[in-house]
Amino acid sequence: MDKLPVLHIITRLIVGGAQENTMFTAALLDPARFDVEILSGPQTGSEGSLIAEVRARDIPLTILPQLLRQINPQNDLLALWKLTRRMQTQRYAIVHTHSSKAGVIGRLAARLAGVPVIIHTVHGWSFHGHMSPAKRKMYILLEKFAASFTDAMIVVAKPDIEKGLREGIGRPEQYHVIRSAIPLDEFNPATVDRDAARAELGLPPNAPVLGNVGRFSPQKNPLDWVRVAGEVGRALPSCHFLLVGDGPLRADVEAALAEEGIAERTVLTGLRRDVPRLMAALDVFLLTSLWEGLPRVIPQAMALEIPVVANRADGTAEAIAHGETGFLCEPGEIAELAGHCLTLLRNPNLRRVMGQRGREFANREFDVRRMVAQIAYLYEVLLEK
Fold this sequence. Notes:
Layout: E1 4-10, H1 17-28, E2 34-40, H2 51-56, E3 61-63, H3 73-90, E4 94-98, H4 100-113, E5 117-122, H5 133-147, E6 152-155, H6 159-166, E7 175-177, H7 194-201, E8 209-213, H8 222-235, E9 240-244, H9 250-260, E10 266-270, H10 275-279, E11 284-287, H11 297-303, E12 308-311, H12 316-319, E13 326-329, H13 334-345, H14 348-365, H15 368-384
């Protein structure tokens, strides 16, 4: 049987959930059945880059200079033309797009090139309630347009189906839920050394530690995170804090930590790729995102038996069973978020029970091998139509 050429297109290969999802899919699809490539725009940023890691995994990677995140008619038309020509030349059986810009231009190019199967993964919709009404309407119209010639849309959480259909994007039969999963073997509490991680980071071995891993960006809402940490720090003076990541709001985060009086008790690691080892230093994981698809840091923390406190935002409510594997609050409820963090930080037995339940859930729902098998099955079903 001939191998099927597959092209994954994404706007930026920054360090992020959508990008890691794309990389793992390309790396783990059966090489005897699929010949997989990735095409990305050139931009990275303060979040860090996955370009070197993709290449280190021997995944064929093309950088298209005109595929940029910002809207620019000249660049966008040139990117569309180059993508269409490439697809016509390479004769891909499947084009699978990720992220908003690549999702629209990539799918349109695939349609123009006559690609047999066009798939898009919604890693959280491009539109949300924190943008201007005019911009939101434009994004919805673009998503509706692209959905009209898409064979399947993968969503990482069920609420994204409801959200898309509510805006008239696609038809119910186009949607398929496939979790954005993680390599569970790497997030195994039996193979990470909590004491060694704390020693390296300068965290006291027995102090309660609240932390987060993620971009310092408006979506992730790190300033609310600092406000919650400030409340926790005043109520629990022995508590320390760990923030792994970087981003455009780094300076604002540092200023807010000083204002809350917890800068000296907070470790800022910057960009790191040894996330399982660093995350093992935590007792509680706090996520204050304003909108999400289904953030992979939640199953990562759960797999390490770390309970999660998070804003109820899109897919987070599907990933956390409130009161069972963690706690959920409405965005902006600083005192309530802090209260849940304090409950967990003061109660080791509750953390242990919630952590064990979380790991069971992560093992059941978020194994990267299961994710790739589901994607491969969807490819085969669509190719047979």
